[in-house]
Specification:
The protein is an alpha+beta fold. It contains eight helices and seven strands; from the N terminus they run βαβαββααααββααβ. It has helices at 13-23, 45-50, 70-77, 80-83, 87-116, 134-147, 190-193, 206-217; strands at residues 2-5, 27-30, 58-60, 66-68, 155-164, 167-176, 229-235. The strands form two sheets. It has a four-stranded mixed beta sheet with strand order 2-1-3-4, with helices on one face. It is elongated, with a radius of gyration of 21 Å. The protein starts with a strand and ends with a strand. InterPro entries: EF-GSTs, EF1B_G_C, EF1B_G_C_sf, Glutathione-S-Trfase_C_sf, Glutathione_S-Trfase_N, Thioredoxin-like_sf. Residues 1-85 form the GST N-terminal domain. This is Elongation factor 1-gamma.
Length: 236
């Protein structure tokens, strides 16, 4: 039996499941304990041995063949009717898959998902001319936290909105398990993080100690920002 590892209701995993249903491929979905626990199973040595990036969806065949990336998995599970029975047809399938990823999914995430209540508007699409009203800026933080809900057991953050209407900015301190950013581990977590600049702090530096004290207490000079404190939110 072929296995697809993912977390529950991961829309990217649906590609593989739909392809398997059309092609008749037998596919077992491991999306809940004990078979799979997101944030634990995909960080285990055994999982990382097969999928070094720890990303899901991830596919493993009964012959040990492994794949990650949703489009590659869907392609592998498809039949000729889905993949294209000629080189020309296969190229056209790849063309439209790539078109959907680059031209349809990004605006759909920004335009359709908010109307369904799945996510708040993202400043990268809805507010291209910088942050306007402070309540809009605050919604960006709230929306990001909502989309990162499955990360709460493995991360802590204090994110602050600085400034006033038409002159605001967002900055924060994040603490993760491990030494790298967790966002690349899931495509769904990448919606927001690419809109911000990230740098790793030196825990031994005075700068880091001052910033941690100010961000956790929500008070201080915040010299690196240059704008007054407006409001803050805690992710835990």
């Amino acid at each position: 039996m072929q296995t697809l590892y993912t977390y529950a209701e991961n829309w990217r995993a649906y590609k593989a499941q739909i392809a398997a249903q059309y092609s008749g491929a037998r596919l077992k979905v491991a999306s809940s304990p004990p078979a799979f626990t997101f944030g634990q199973t995909n960080r285990s040595p055994a999982f990382l041995n097969n999928f070094p990036l720890g990303k899901v969806p991830a596919y493993q065949g009964d012959d040990g063949f492994c794949l990650f990336e949703s489009n590659a998995i869907a392609h592998y599970l498809s039949n000729d009717a889905l993949r294209g029975s000629t080189p020309q047809a296969s190229a056209q399938v790849l063309q439209w898959v790539s078109f959907a990823d680059s031209e349809i999914i990004p605006p759909a995430s920004a335009w359709v998902f908010p109307t369904l209540g799945i996510m708040q508007f993202n400043k990268q699409y809805r507010f291209p001319d910088e942050l306007a009203m402070t309540f809009m800026s605050c919604n960006l933080i709230t929306g990001m936290f909502q989309r990162l809900d499955k990360l709460r057991k493995n991360a802590f953050a204090s994110v602050i909105l600085f400034g006033t209407n038409n002159a605001s900015s967002i900055s924060g301190i994040w603490v993760f398990r491990g030494q790298e950013l967790a966002f690349p581990l899931s495509e769904d977590w990448q919606i927001d993080y690419e809109s911000y600049n990230w740098r790793k702090l030196d825990v031994e530096s005075e700068e880091c100690k001052t910033m941690v004290k100010e961000y956790f207490a929500w008070e201080g000079e915040f010299k690196h920002v240059g704008k007054p404190f407006n409001q803050g939110k805690i992710f835990k």
